[in-house]
TrEMBL record, chain A:
Alphabetical keyword list: Amino-acid transport, ATP-binding, CBS domain, Cell inner membrane, Cell membrane, Membrane, Nucleotide-binding, Transport
GO process annotations (BP): amino acid transport; glycine betaine transport; response to osmotic stress
Native species: Pullulanibacillus camelliae
Protein name as it appears in the record: Quaternary amine transport ATP-binding protein
SUPFAM superfamilies registered for this protein in UniProt: CBS-domain pair, P-loop containing nucleoside triphosphate hydrolases
NCBIfam families membership: PRK10070.1, proV
GN (gene name): opuAA
From TrEMBL, chain B:
Localization in the cell: Cell membrane; Membrane
Keyword Ribonucleoprotein carried by entry: no
InterPro entries: MetI-like, MetI-like_sf
Family that this chain belongs to: Belongs to the binding-protein-dependent transport system permease family.
PROSITE patterns: ABC_TM1
Top-rank lineage group of the source organism: Bacteria
Protein name in the entry: Glycine betaine transport system permease protein OpuAB
Molecular-function annotations in GO: amine transmembrane transporter activity; carnitine transmembrane transporter activity
Keywords: Cell membrane, Membrane, Transmembrane, Transmembrane helix, Transport
Keyword Transmembrane: yes
A Pfam family per the record: BPD_transp_1
CC per GO annotation: ATP-binding cassette (ABC) transporter complex
One GO term of the biological process aspect: glycine betaine transport
Amino acid sequence: MDKIEVRDVTKIFGKNPKRGIELINQGLTKTEILEKTGMTVGVNKASFSIKDGEIFVIMGLSGSGKSTLVRLLNRLIEPTSGTVLIDGKDVTKLNKQELREVRRSKMSMVFQRFALFPHRTILANTEFGLEIQNVSKEVRRKKALEALELVGLKGYEEKKPGELSGGMQQRVGLARALANDADVLLMDEAFSALDPLIRKDMQDELLDLQSKMQKTIVFITHDLDEALRIGDRIVLMKDGSIVQVGTPEEILMNPANDYVEQFVEDVDVTKVFTAEHVMKRPETIEVSRGLRVAMKIMKDEGVSTVYAIDKNKRFLGILYGDDAAKAVEQGKSINDVIKPVESVTTDTYLIDMFETLSASPVPIPVIDDSGRLKGIVKRSAIIDVMADSSEVLNGEG
Amino acid sequence: MSDTYHHFIPKIEIGKWVQDVVQSFVDHTENFFTGLGNGINWFVQQLVDLFTWINPFVFIIIIAAIAFWRSGWGVALFSLIGLWLIFNLGYWADTMQTLGLILTAIIISIIIGIPFGIWIGLSDTAKNIITPILDFMQTMPAFVYLIPVLFLFGTGMAPGVVATVIFSMPPTIRMAGLGIRQVPEDLIEASEAFGSKTSQKLFKVQLPLALSTIMAGINQSIMLALSMVVIASLVAAPGLGAKVYLAVTQLRLDIGVESGLSIVIIAIVLDRITQNIRKQKKS
């Protein structure tokens, strides 16, 4: 189901926005309109929809209109034209009172520079959203404490924002937004002001929280790595227009135009792709079939090892050709000669498996959550990915 | 020369016009301003009665205690010695009159000034209209206020208070406006994003954050009010100012120095106490 639907939303800053809309409809670009009228096109006919429970990343360089776009959703900036539907209801048609209600119950916002109230304690900051709804003191305190515990700030309730580090302040910002229990979180460059290590922690934590809460998150960023890391889907913006919408893979695999291609050129693919993307089909032996069958498979396929699995395809270990031959001579069973080997899971990022891979004498097995063998990863596969990601992906499907 | 000039182009009678307007204004509003004047007189008298009813030594200790609470030992000690000196010199009653005048003027300044300050903080139109008026109020020689004020209120404490209010209110208005405008944009945005009403935004975000600036404005207003006490004495407002005026007209250096010193002591005590309210709120 679509939680948010944005249709042809346009924002023009300047004296005569109506004229600006006409010019846009005539097909003039942002630069032409600026030269002709002095008006700035903030967002140019943006259309997209956001599914319930997904992390939707709006990504672009500064000046691309992404921060304006997110403010058009809760009308901190009034759209010049277009509609914004939230749960099927047109936000742009609401009167002041109704808009306040939507802001209170449906959408919470997290800000780039935290925007905590310096005169309030951490607890009072977290309570703010509930306080202005006149929620009773006990209830709002309880909810605020829960939210603070969720972001790992238990025990800091009575501190003032100035006494906390940047990362902790943004946790408060997040807690303040969560305390409202709104379905939609608008996060405007929420982690951009944090230093890289803390930013990564916060991204992980957000993903972790998201797996528990299933909110609909609209996340603004200028950092492509961040977008690829946390986004279920990404929209790329340039000069106020949407250039491409898609999953991280789609954007990396099929850049819509030169602009996107340039953008994704420098991406570290080892942080984006997982074992699942690069694994190949392994030669396997189901152990009940015995050593002789295993040796035949090795001979037929021209390989020196096979991966042993049970009836449910669960991975048991690796069988080397030499061991198999000796075992047949000595009359041992297959279970006696299967050797353990380190494995990775399907969602392991390439960057996190370098060590395992270099230590292992054989391609490493990839297993799913229930331990079933899904494939193997060879060292060469990673090099292939780094050399040319699209080829590998297209080739393997 | 001037006569020949005026033969061709008559003098623009600004002074006469203003006088006519004020006169007609006075005629039509006499009851109102007499009532207002009586009200102010009554209020000041209540304060002065209260101050003089309290035993001077008790009063001195109370002030010193407030000074200690707000600013620490140094200011407390200064207040103790300074106020005792005023008592010793024999200017206690005058000082209480002056305190009554200043306190009344400041209370009126706050009651009128803060709402106007909030208004110019929130609205550009209001700022564009009110700022020139404030400039006018502050740059017009303070003596000039005395004339219409005399028309409206006669002589005594009330015109002194009113002239003091006019002269000392602008910083309260300006700084309140400035304080509201200085609230960071993202905090305003945050309060709106969570669905604040305009009044919630004002009372929960803008005013608390503007408080230290507002206090600085009030502190300035108090200092300006003190600088008006001598001028206020020209319309027969009693107090230390009247003593200074007396000293000038009778060339009494002794009275001049003693009453002047008393004003300085009061000024320093009030400044230090109110200044530190601001600092404390900031940290």
